From TrEMBL:
GO terms for biological process: mitochondrial electron transport, NADH to ubiquinone. This is Lactobacillus shifted protein. Pfam families: zf-CHCC. GO terms for cellular component: mitochondrion. It comes from the Eukaryota. It comes from Trichoderma lentiforme. Signal peptide: none annotated. The lineage of its organism: Eukaryota, Fungi, Dikarya, Ascomycota, Pezizomycotina.
Length: 213
């Protein structure tokens, strides 16, 4: 139990004088560092203040220039407004002249070409287009009506083939059954076919969709 006490006494006698010297040195060094930091911070503050004052001067000069330019722009705008009506009248007159000279759409025929039409002088009078009588308008034949004027092609075979004449104006070849007592037409070109065995029956009918001869 006595050995630890002796070791503790030795540690106290050893560390106390050693600990006093670095504290005094550290205090001196810290004071020097603080003084240097204070001097640097003061220099930095002075530099910032100088920069701020220079920027403030630049901003003041810029605002003065902007005020002067805005005043000059206002005076020039007033001058332009005062002289604007003189040029505006000439421009509007030119625009009106170009509008009046615009070419209107019209057919390249001076006279009428149908009984139901009217001359140009009275074209916009009377009933509208929706109210016109289409029975009086030109009515050309449709393709279906023209096909039904083609006579029947008689055959002795029960199956016939049709390709529309072949070539670029033709159509794919199809096969048509003619075994029934009726006129069978091509689904592409509408050409009619019938069997000779059913001729008497078809001729006895009061009306057929295709001419038999």
């Amino acid at each position: 139990m006595r050995a630890p006490a002796a070791s503790s006494c030795r540690s106290r006698t050893i560390f106390v004088p050693v600990f006093v010297q670095p504290t005094s040195r550290f205090n001196l060094n810290s004071r020097r560092v603080l003084l240097g930091f204070e001097s640097r911070s003061l220099n930095l503050i002075a530099n910032v203040a100088a920069m701020a004052s220079s920027q403030l001067r630049a901003v003041q000069t810029l605002t003065r220039n902007l005020r002067a330019s805005s005043r000059s722009f206002a005076t020039s705008a007033r001058r332009l407004e005062a002289s604007a009506p003189v040029t505006g009248t000439s421009e509007t007159a030119a625009v009106l002249e170009t509008d009046s000279k615009a070419i209107s759409q019209a057919p390249n025929r001076g006279a009428i070409w149908s009984r139901s039409q009217k001359p140009r002088s009275t074209a916009m009078t009377g009933p509208r287009f929706e109210q016109t009588d289409f029975a009086l308008q030109p009515q050309p034949y449709s393709a279906m009506e023209l096909v039904h004027k083609v006579p029947v092609t008689w055959t002795h075979d029960k199956i016939v083939s049709c390709d529309g004449g072949g070539g670029p104006a033709g159509h794919p070849r199809i096969f048509i059954n003619t075994d029934k007592p009726e006129i069978a037409s091509c689904n592409y070109c509408g050409t009619p076919y019938a069997n000779e065995h059913h001729r008497k029956h078809l001729e006895s009918l009061p009306e057929t969709s295709y001419p038999l001869k």
